[in-house]
Give the backbone structure.
Amino acid sequence: MNLYIKKFINQASYEEIVYFLRADTIILIKQIILFVFLLAVPFLANYFLQVSFPEVFENTILFPLLALLASAYFLTIWLVFFLAFIDYYLDFWIVTNDRIINVSQHLFSRTISELDLYKIQDVTVEAKGMLATMFNYGNVYIQTAGARQRFVFENIPNPRVVSKKIMELAEVDSKYHTGGGSSPQK
Amino acid sequence: MSISIFLIVYCVFLAVFVIFSLFAIYHLAAFVPPSSIAFFTTYVFLAGVALILFVSWAELQGVDWTQTLSFVNNTYESLY
């Protein structure tokens, strides 16, 4: 995993990785539950048709049409679920003692953005909803003075702990950049 | 027009499906180091696709694809 991370961040000798963050596992579990529900829909429709319209299954034209539609439906939701997993797995944030790196993956695009810790002005935590409160996950908004106003860690676990640590790191980095500190060693 | 038109439309869908699947697998291969997760998810995905296609093929075994498609005279009357 370390080699994998280094591939993205081009790690400097003084730089230490503090956090490697992905969206909370509960986000993936929510997608699995939705997937199971969508998977059940054709089976329920099949049951309904068998009970209410059994003639459909003997019809030589409607039956192949429905079978092909069901096949296309299953393939589509299977692919969507696979893409959702890739999106979950390949979207991550790396926090070092010098900067924050965001790697964002979509089907036809990939974005890697960076933010220097000393540019951070404010860090805000947001945990919306019952699930977020129960499972302790949420968003962390990082406000900077630069052109990019906000850097968002979406649905990460332990957002309060992460935001506190980022503020600490930003303070240390800021002291270094204003000449008042000695860490990180550059 | 025969009901093989359904198969043609399905084949077009399959072509789009293959393109998207290849993109997805490419992303896993290109951006994830060779790991058990990348292999496992790709394997599960391909196994699922194979299963869906096999079940579809088995269900459609006895279908006569040369039948004429006529909703008014054929489908409606055979339903009621």
